[in-house]
Amino acid sequence: MSQRKKYWLRCSRCLMREELCLCSAIPTLNIDTKLIIVMSKRELKVPTNTGRLASLALPNSVILARGDQDHPYDLKDHLPTDRPGLLLYPADDAPLLTKEFVQSQGPFHLVVPDGNWRQTSKMRHRDPVMAALPTVRLAPGAASAYRVRKENKAEGLATIEAIARALGVMEGFPVQKALEDLLQLMVSRIMFSRGLPLELPLDDGDH
User: Fold this and answer.
1) How many domains does the chain have?
2) pLDDT tens digits, one per residue of 70-122
C-alpha cells in the first residue's frame, strides 16, 4: 500500500500527514450564511479536497456526500424556508453575486457543488432540488492559487477559493482572506511534502 493511502498516518481531522497537520491553523469563522457543500463520497477521504477543508473552518456548514448509500440525503431537507437558497455555479446566464443582491435578499443557504466542471454540471442536472435553485456566479477575479490538483479550465477555482470569494461578498473580506490564507498554507505544505520549494513556513505563526 502506498504512503498516500496510509490514512492512519494522517490527521483524522484535516487528513494531512501528521507532520504537516493544518488543524492548529484552521480558523473558526462564525457567519450568517449556511453553507451546504455537495461532493462525491470518494472525495471525503481525499487530503487535497478543499471543500472539506473549508467546512472545517465554518461551523455553519454541512457536507452532503453523493453516492453514499449508507447516508442518503435529500437536499430540500437542508433548505428550510427560513431563508432563500442559492446555488453557486458558473453558468453563463447566471447573474453575478453582488453585495447589493445579498443586502436586498440575504442571508442565504448557499449550495456549492464540489468537483470539476463535468462533475458539478452532472450534480446540477441530476438533482432536481439543486436544479431549481436560483443560480449565481462569481465576478471574474485572480487566477487560482491552487497548484495541487490539475484544473482543465484556466478560470477554474478550487472549491475553497470559490467559497472564499462568495463569502467575501456575502460576509465580508476578512472571511475571504482567512479561507484563502488557509488554502495557501495547505498548498505550501503539500508542495513541501512533494519536494518542491516551500512558499510558506511550516510553523503556523499567527494563523
Assistant:
1) 1
2) 888 999 999 999 999 999 999 999 999 999 999 998 899 999 999 888 889 99
Please check whether residue 2 lies inside any domain of the structure.
no
pLDDT at 69 over 70: yes
**Domain presence at residue 152:** no
Question: Using the 8-state DSSP alphabet, how is residue 95 labeled?
Answer: P
What is the C-alpha separation between 182 and 25, in angstroms, rounded?
Answer: 7
Residue 207 pLDDT greater than 50, yes or no = no
Range of the domain at 49: 28-138+158-193
pTM, rounded to two decimals: 0.88
**Widest pairwise Cα distance in the chain:** 53
106's grid cell: 440575504
On the CB side of 131, CA atoms within 13 Å amount to 8
Separation of alpha carbons 110 and 86, rounded Å: 5
The CATH code of the domain that includes 54 is: 3.40.1280
Cβ-in-10-Å burial (0-12, 13-18, 19+) of 152 comes to exposed
**Are 181 and 161 in contact, with CB atoms under 8 Å apart?**
no
